[in-house]
Amino acid sequence: MIIGACEVRLRIMGARSLKEKRKTLKSMKDRVSKMNISVAEVDDQDKWQAATLGFALVSNDSSYVNSVLDRIFSFLSEFPDVEVIDRKMEIMHI
Fold first, then answer.
1. Cα dist from 50 to 4, 29, 60, 76, 93, whole Å
2. Which residues pair with 91 in a beta bridge?
C-alpha cells in the first residue's frame, strides 16, 4: 500500500474576508475531490489571505501517486487569485 500526502500553503490574494477565502477554498476543494483525492484545510483557518491545505491518497502504484500529486500542484497554480507559497510532499510505502 502506498500513501501519498502533501501540504500546500497558499496566499489568497483576492480575499478581503474569511467569507471570500472560504468561497475560494470551497471551489478548489470541490474540483479537487473529483480527482478521487482527500482534501482538507489543515492550518491558517483564521487568516483571510492564507490557507494550508492537506491532500492524501492511497494506491498500490507509486508512479500513479506521484502523477496525481503533481496534477494537484499544477491545478492549484491555475487559480488566478491564488499563489502557492510552499509545498511539502511525502510518499509512504506500508
1. 23, 15, 33, 14, 31
2. 4
pLDDT at 13: 86
Return the CATH number at 56: 3.30.70.1120
- CA proximity to 53, closest of 29, 81, 24: 29
Instruction: Name the pTM for this structure.
Output: 0.84
Domain count, the chain: 1
* 58 class by beta-carbon count within 10 Å (0-12 exposed, 13-18 middle, 19+ buried): middle
**Residues 8 and 25: beta-carbon distance below 8 Å:** no
Structural domain span for residue 38: 2-93
